[in-house]
Amino acid sequence: MVLGLMLGFFKNMDHQIIGYARVSTSHQATDRQVDVLKENGCSIV
Fold it and tell me: Is the CB of residue 18 less than 8 Å from the CB of residue 43?
């Protein structure tokens, strides 16, 4: 079950894609979310 995971992205004024990843509990990790964001062009996570 995957609960409490969230990721997203937006472009800043320099047209860089900035991503964010978060989890709800200390038992979860952002590793996969960060990988997905980087694979999709995020230059800053």
Answer: yes
The answer to whether 34 touches 18, Cβ cutoff 8 Å, is no
Q: Is 38 left (phi over 0), alpha (psi -120 to 50) or beta?
A: alpha
CA dist 45 → 1, 7, 37 (Å): 25, 10, 7
pTM to 2 decimals?
0.65
Can you give the residue ranges of every domain in the chain? 6-39
Q: Token digits for 22?
A: 């978060």
Residue-wise pLDDT for 16-37, tens only, equals 888 888 888 888 888 988 898 8
